[in-house]
Amino acid sequence: MAGFRSLARQVRDPRCDPALRRYSLRKCLERFAPYGHRATWDHLCSRAGFDPEDRSVDPARLVAALEELEEARAVWLAYEVEFAERRRKEKHDGLRRPGSVDDWHRLTWGGFGVAWCDDPRVHPREPLAEVLRRLIAALEREPGSACPVCRGERLVWRYGLDHEPSAGPVCTDCGILVPRPVLTPEALADARRARLLVSA
């Protein structure tokens, strides 16, 4: 099975058939897809200016989409290195029980679904790398009451998400499943109450 870098080379390779280059970009999302596969694909297509169903995409647009994905992946991989170093130090210092950020991180190892978007057409519009920087910054500071990506305060608790965890606070502005560790207990309770009001 080809890795991310090998697939990225195929996307860039002018000797490859355009259909293979598009396919290789789609396969990259099996290795790294911050919003989930379908939402990340929709995001990359809209940012690079081609239709998700287009089978004969201009190779320059495919490369532009790949470059955005690679930049975001570099941001996430750097975070994972820092995370692993921090956990190693904590274990050395006797802190064996991971915290809530660690529990969340275990579910997103490798970058799949870091900012999960259950509806593939509703996702942040900013570049992926910027979204991940905002999310990482939120994980490294005290919890707040708003979405760390768009600063939206309309969070609604949703069940039956196609992700793990399968329930949680979803930002109705940008569509991400907001990681619980970045929200205060009050913000989580408000999201649960908002769900009850929506379903009533």
User: What's the multimeric state?
Assistant: single chain
Distance between the termini: 48 Å
Helix content: 40-55%
The radius of gyration computed from the alpha-carbon positions, rounded to a whole number of angstroms, is 18 Å
Outline the structure in words.
The structure is a single chain. The chain has 200 residues and is mainly alpha-helical. It contains seven helices and two strands, in the order ααααααββα. The chain has helices at residues 4-12, 18-28, 37-48, 59-92, 100-107, 128-139, 185-199, and strands at residues 155-158, 168-171. It has a two-stranded antiparallel sheet with strand order 1-2. Helix 1 runs antiparallel to helix 2 and helix 3 packs across helix 4. The chain starts with a helix and ends with a helix.
What is the compact description of this entry?
By secondary structure, this protein is mainly alpha-helical. Helix content is 50%, strand content 4%.
SSE map:
Blueprint: H1 4-12, H2 18-28, H3 37-48, H4 59-92, H5 100-107, H6 128-139, E1 155-158, E2 168-171, H7 185-199
Helix pairs in contact: 1-2, 2-4, 3-4, 4-6
